[in-house]
Amino acid sequence: MPYEMIVTETDGAVAVIRLNRPESLNALCDQLMSELADALRGFDSDKSIRCIVLTGSDRAFAAGADIKEMQNRSWPETGLDDFIGKSWEVVTTTLKPVIAAVSGYALGGGCELAMMCDIIIAADTAKFGQPEIAIGVIPGAGGTQRLTRAIGKSKAMEMILTGRMMDAEEAERANLVARVVPAADLMPEAMKLARRIAGMSPVALLQAKRSINAAFETMLAEGVRYERASFLPLFGTPHQREGMAAFIEKRKPDFS
Ligand SMILES: CCCCCCCCCCCCC[C@H](O)CC(=O)SCCNC(=O)CCNC(=O)[C@H](O)C(C)(C)COP(=O)(O)OP(=O)(O)OC[C@H]1O[C@@H](n2cnc3c(N)ncnc32)[C@H](O)[C@@H]1OP(=O)(O)O
């Protein structure tokens, strides 16, 4: 599928998807989200890819869903089409680790898209927010749920009820992002992290990602049961044997 609104490339076992609508600060229109979903499905089924980096431009990761596209839509016409589920949610069903490398604006659907990813690395220029209230709506792609779980009720409520932005430093203090780096270092740092993750056992990465995400979705006892059900099947796999043998033999493991 030729893409008009995203650019994709691979670097060894790492795939990079760059949102590419600079004229509208990467506003997330239906076509862009369909292209993103297609690219994610493709890399998720490509055995040579073990980690995915999603990024935007220096000025904007994404300034939200496309207001101009949404302006005149109404539920009676579009309510039967689960567009959010069929395209936006593909990020959350991607089995491989997805790193969001955020520079500039990540607002509304842009912040929600970043939060659907597994790890957010922020440039010191990043600005996060859910300003939907200012245009008469609320977050519609998980923002009220993921932001609250990530930063706590009071700060999430303040952000969503006022629509204010938070800068990268505040986002790091609030645990919305894993780390803040100088803007010039964003992609080098994101790629370094992605390569490190890509060197690990794919089956262990899958079980770890699923178990951590289960912590968002369930009560503690159920989450621990889910983790145990993910942990025990790893024993007897070639990568568990190789990983533990390599430690004992004092050598690097080969998870290829
Ligand atoms: C039943 C009906 C269903 C309908 C929807 C279903 C399908 C979609 C699924 C959506 C699920 C997610 C929902 C999400 O939670 C909702 C949103 O994301 S709403 C949008 C939230 N974002 C914003 O409100 C931010 C808007 N942008 C700004 O505030 C400013 O642009 C800025 C980021 C502060 C930057 O300001 P400036 O530096 O001054 O730059 P400009 O404002 O001049 O912008 C430059 C250029 O980009 C255009 N643009 C910016 N943001 C958007 C956007 N979100 N949508 C469309 N276009 C955008 C801006 O218009 C300028 O373009 P120009 O006017 O020059 O052509």
UniProtKB/TrEMBL annotation:
EC assignment: 4.2.1.17
Protein origin, superkingdom: Bacteria
InterPro entries attached to this UniProt entry: ClpP/crotonase-like_dom_sf, Enoyl-CoA_hyd/isom_CS, Enoyl-CoA_hydra/iso, Enoyl-CoA_hydra_C
UniProt key word Nucleotide-binding: no
Catalytic reactions of this protein: a (3S)-3-hydroxyacyl-CoA = a (2E)-enoyl-CoA + H2O; a 4-saturated-(3S)-3-hydroxyacyl-CoA = a (3E)-enoyl-CoA + H2O
Coiled-coil stretches noted in the UniProt entry, renumbered to this chain: none
Alphabetized CDD domains for the sequence: crotonase-like (cd06558)
Molecular function via GO: 3-hydroxyacyl-CoA dehydratase activity
Assigned keywords, A-Z: Fatty acid metabolism, Lipid metabolism, Lyase
GO terms of biological process kind: fatty acid beta-oxidation
Function: Could possibly oxidize fatty acids using specific components.
Listed PANTHER family: ENOYL-COA HYDRATASE, MITOCHONDRIAL, ENOYL-COA HYDRATASE-RELATED
Family membership noted in the UniProt record: Belongs to the enoyl-CoA hydratase/isomerase family.
Descriptive protein name: enoyl-CoA hydratase
Organism: Acidiphilium multivorum (strain DSM 11245 / JCM 8867 / NBRC 100883 / AIU 301)
